[in-house]
Design brief:
- The protein is an alpha+beta fold.
- It is 35% helix and 21% strand.
- It has eleven helices and 18 strands.
- The strands form four sheets. A five-stranded mixed beta sheet has the order 2-1-10-5-6.
- Helix 5 runs antiparallel to helix 6.
- The longest helix has 38 residues.
C-alpha cells in the first residue's frame, strides 16, 4: 500500500509541476504582451518569433503553407508557435521538479531567444524591442521557481513529523500561488491587449477621416459586356473583403496617415523627396482598373483579384526627383520599396517608367485602402507579380541596382524580375462536379496583365481545341472572362483551357511550380456527367 501511495503522490506532483511550467509560460507571454504596449505591439514574443520563423523558412515551405492553408497560413503559424511553447513549458515544469534552478534558467533562455528574434527583425527599432521578451521571461522564471518550491518543500505541521514522500508538500500554498498567478497573468494579458489595441486608434481614426479627391484622370467605365452572366463566375471587380491577401505580416500594420512619411532617395536621385499622405492627395491622381496576381498562385489558383485603384503616378514622382530609366542613361535599374514592417521588394525602374500605370495607390474600389491591403499607401505595377511590385504599407523608395541589392524574396531564391505569365482558369463547372447531360456552360477567367488576352480555347478530353466566347476586354491590365457552351455527354470527362495573350503567345502547357517566377501550365478539371 505504501508503494502505491508514493507512486500516486509522485504522479500528482509531476502533473502539478507540468502545470507550473504551463502557468510560467502563460505568465511570460502575458507580461511580455503588457510590456510590448509600452514598446510597440510588434515586439511581443509571439509576433517576433513568428516573424523570425517566417524569415528563415525556405521558400518551398512557405509555398506549401500558402497552397495548403491559404490566407490562414499566419494563423496556423501562430497556433503552431503557441502549441510549441506550451509543450516546452510542460517539459520545463517537469524538469524543474528535479532541477529547480535549471528549469527556471530554461525559461530565461527562451526569453533571450524571443528578444534576439525581436531585435533582429527588419523593422526593429533597436534593443528596446527585446525588452518585452526579457521581462516576460524573468516573470515566468520567477513564477516557476516559486511554484516548484511549493512542490518540493514539505509543509510542516506543529507537533507532527511528516516525510516528504508521504505527501507532506505544501498543497495549500501551491494552490494559492497557482490561482493567484493565473489570475494575475490573465489580467496582465487583457490589459496588454487593450493597450496595444488603443495604440492603433489613431491609425483607425486617420483612415475613417480620409477623403479621396476626385481623380484628375478617371478610369474608363468598365464595358457592360466585361461581366458574363454565368453562374459560378467570380464578379469582374473583386470586393475588398474578398480580395486575396498574401504577405508575411503576422500583425497587420496599422499606420497613422497623419504621421506617415515616404522618402524617395538613392542612386540617380538629384533631389530627395519626402512626402506626407496629404501631399499625395493634393497631387493629380489617376484612377485605373488593374488586376493583381500573386506569384504563389498555383495553376487554377485563387490568388488573383481585380479592383479599381486610385493613386499618384509613380513615374511622375521619380521624374520629379530627377530619376531617369536605364534606357535614357539612368544610374539605377532597381527600385527597392520598403514597408513599415521591414519587407523589401525590388522593381525594375524601366518597367515603372515605360508608360504603364504604375502608382502609389491610396484608394481601392472607391474607398481608402483597407489596412490589410496597405493603408495608407501601397505600390503597384501592372504586369508584374506582387512580390516585385505591390509593396503594402510602403514608407521608403530607394533607387539602386540589381547588382548592389537583393530584395527579401530574391534572397530566398525567387527571381529578380517577374512579369506575370499568361494564365487561364476554369471556374465552372467545379472539379469533380456532376453536371447533367446537355448544354453545360464552361466558364472562367484568363489574364496576361499589360499584354491582354486575345483568345481562349477549350478542349474536352483529347479532342480538338475549340474557341471560347470572350467577354469584352476592359484594358490590357485586367483579366478577361470567357465561356464555352459544351454539349456534355454522360460519363467522365476532362476539360482543359488555354489562353493566347495580346502578343500572340500561346499559354505554355509545361507545368512549373511557383518558385522561382510563377507557376505555368494548363488548368484542367475532371467532371462526371449524369
Amino acid at each position: 500500500m505504501t508503494t502505491v501511495r508514493i507512486t500516486r503522490t509522485a504522479l500528482t506532483r509531476g502533473t502539478l509541476a507540468a502545470l507550473s511550467g504551463l502557468l510560467a509560460g502563460f505568465a511570460a507571454l502575458t507580461v511580455a504582451e503588457l510590456v510590448s504596449a509600452a514598446v510597440r505591439p510588434e515586439a511581443s514574443p509571439v509576433t517576433a518569433v513568428g516573424g523570425a520563423a517566417i524569415d528563415r523558412t525556405p521558400a518551398a515551405v512557405k509555398d506549401f503553407a500558402i497552397r495548403n492553408f491559404g490566407e490562414n497560413d499566419k494563423l496556423v503559424l501562430q497556433l503552431g508557435i503557441v502549441v510549441t511553447l506550451a509543450l516546452f513549458a510542460l517539459a520545463v515544469g517537469v524538469l524543474a521538479l528535479r532541477y529547480r534552478r535549471t528549469g527556471s534558467a530554461a525559461v530565461l533562455a527562451f526569453g533571450v531567444v524571443g528578444a534576439a528574434s525581436a531585435v533582429s527583425r527588419p523593422d526593429s527599432t533597436g534593443v528596446v524591442d527585446g525588452l518585452p521578451s526579457l521581462v516576460g521571461a524573468v516573470a515566468g522564471a520567477a513564477l516557476l521557481y516559486v511554484l516548484i518550491g511549493r512542490l518540493t518543500r514539505p509543509r510542516r505541521i506543529p507537533g507532527e513529523e511528516q516525510a516528504e514522500d508521504e505527501g507532506g508538500w505544501d498543497r495549500r500554498g501551491f494552490l494559492i500561488a497557482a490561482t493567484a498567478a493565473a489570475a494575475a497573468s490573465t489580467v496582465a494579458g487583457a490589459v496588454g491587449r487593450t493597450l496595444n489595441g488603443r495604440s492603433s486608434q489613431n491609425a483607425v481614426a486617420s483612415r475613417e477621416g480620409a477623403r479621396l479627391p476626385a481623380p484628375a484622370s478617371p478610369a474608363e467605365p468598365i464595358p457592360a459586356g466585361a461581366q458574363l452572366r454565368v453562374p459560378g463566375l467570380p464578379p469582374f471587380t473583386t470586393p475588398n473583403n474578398k480580395f486575396y491577401r498574401v504577405d508575411t505580416a503576422l500583425v497587420v500594420p496599422k499606420v497613422d496617415a497623419n504621421t506617415w512619411r515616404l522618402r524617395i532617395h538613392g542612386k540617380g536621385v538629384r533631389r530627395d523627396l519626402e512626402l506626407t499622405y496629404q501631399d499625395l492627395l493634393d497631387r493629380p491622381l489617376i484612377e485605373r482598373e488593374i488586376t493583381l496576381c500573386c506569384v504563389s498562385n498555383e495553376v487554377g489558383g485563387p490568388y488573383i483579384g481585380h479592383a479599381k485603384w486610385i493613386g499618384v503616378r509613380l513615374s511622375d514622382l521619380l521624374k520629379e526627383a530627377g530619376v531617369k530609366p536605364p534606357s535614357r542613361g539612368g544610374r539605377a535599374d532597381q527600385i527597392i520599396a520598403r514597408s513599415v514592417d521591414g519587407m523589401t521588394l525590388g522593381t525594375p525602374v524601366e518597367d515603372v517608367m515605360d508608360g504603364r500605370d504604375a502608382m502609389l495607390a491610396v484608394g481601392m474600389n472607391g474607398e481608402p485602402l483597407p489596412f490589410v491591403h496597405g493603408f495608407p499607401v501601397r505600390m503597384l505595377v501592372p504586369g508584374l507579380y506582387g512580390y516585385v511590385s505591390a509593396c503594402k504599407w510602403i514608407e521608403d523608395i530607394e533607387l539602386t541596382t540589381f547588382d548592389d541589392y537583393d530584395a527579401y524574396w530574391v534572397k530566398r531564391k525567387w527571381a529578380r524580375k517577374a512579369p506575370i505569365k499568361t494564365q487561364s482558369r476554369i471556374d465552372t463547372p467545379k472539379p469533380f462536379g456532376r453536371p447533367e447531360a446537355g448544354t453545360v456552360m464552361v466558364a472562367g477567367v484568363a489574364w496576361a496583365q499589360h499584354r491582354g488576352i486575345e483568345k481562349v480555347e477549350i478542349r474536352v478530353d483529347d479532342g480538338p481545341w475549340r474557341p471560347a466566347q470572350l467577354a469584352e476586354q476592359d484594358t490590357v491590365d485586367t483579366w478577361r472572362q470567357w465561356s464555352y457552351p459544351w454539349k456534355a455527354t454522360p460519363g467522365g470527362h476532362t476539360l482543359t483551357v488555354r489562353a493566347t495573350d495580346g502578343t500572340g503567345e500561346v499559354q505554355t502547357e509545361k507545368r512549373t511550380k511557383t518558385v522561382p517566377d510563377g507557376a505555368s501550365g494548363w488548368h484542367s478539371v475532371v467532371v462526371s456527367v449524369d
